User: Fold this.
Amino acid sequence: MIYTVTLNPALDRTIWVERIKDDDPNRIKKEKKYAGGKGIDVSRVLYHLGIPNRALGFLGGYTGMEIEGILLQEGIYTDFTTIVNETRTNIVLDIESERRQVILSAKGPEIEPVELTNLFKKLENLNSAEYVVFSGSLPPGLSPTIYERAVEVANSKGATTILDTDGDNLKKGINGKPKIIKPNIHELSRLVGKKLSGANEIIESAEDIRRQGIEIVLVSMGAKGILLVSDNERLHGVPPEVDVKNTIGAGDSSVAGFVFGLKKNLPLKDCLKYAVAAGTATTLQPGTALANKDEINSIFEKVKVFPV
Ligand SMILES: Nc1ncnc2c1ncn2[C@@H]1O[C@H](COP(=O)(O)OP(=O)(O)OP(=O)(O)O)[C@@H](O)[C@H]1O
Ligand SMILES: [Mg+2]
Assistant:
């Protein structure tokens, strides 16, 4: 089984208005709720690709139940750990006359110690975990060493672990030795503490990280695609030029594409192609919508891979 872990999910509530006037009621034209979270998005894209998986993490309160219901409706299997505090809601304000979106992002709920224990018990009891993907930020107050411990537990279950996070969470999480990490170029640059320009500098930094016990480093670079650095290979996957609608979830889709390739026992080169294809396919979708299978497969044919 493939598991994704989202420790700080959110209900993303988009509100459309024509314009914003001060001191006057602003009429809401339309509202939409989306179950947001980076691991959840990985689950969605895997599901679109026909790969069964289960989304784990923390959910609490009415908002938590709402997220679970939305995912149920979408066909995603979940096994979240219940918390007493309310899962966060992010507000996206879409001001149509200004073609502008304002995003108000909430911090997230505090996690009680016993809830953390419950999550770890769940991880320790995962049945036949083949892949465990850890994605996104941590709720406030949780120590960045949580990712280190969680990755260690998943490794000890024999799973292939993937970590996709930023800052201190990534820095500390790497100590748990995830098999794969997928920083984007900015995250990698923060991790190694220097500005990176050009493939050689990126590969050098990726090799530094690999020496800490990481097998595969995938560095995503937006429209420039993804660099893969592993024991035997250094490859650059380049997407075709496309009409980008929205890049939200592109990185998470790439993680899903890569895991899809691994699950299908494809050579690393093709796993990389799927990672690029899934990311790029998601950029063709408006808003928070994610890549579908047909688009991923059609872009897959157009992804070029070059040795570096
Ligand atoms: N402008 C673009 N044109 C074509 N493909 C893109 C573009 N932006 C992203 N992609 C595709 O998506 C992949 C992942 O994107 P990116 O490097 O932006 O990830 P990220 O920064 O981790 O994103 P996220 O915000 O989802 O975490 C890229 O490697 C590429 O294949
Ligand atoms: Mg990302």
Notes: The domain at 1-111 is CATH 3.40.1190.20 (UDP-N-acetylmuramoyl-L-alanine:D-glutamate ligase). Residues 25 and 184 are 41 Å apart (CA to CA). The first strand starts at residue 2 and ends at 6. Residues 164, 184, 251 surround magnesium ion (ligand 2) (CB under 6 Å).
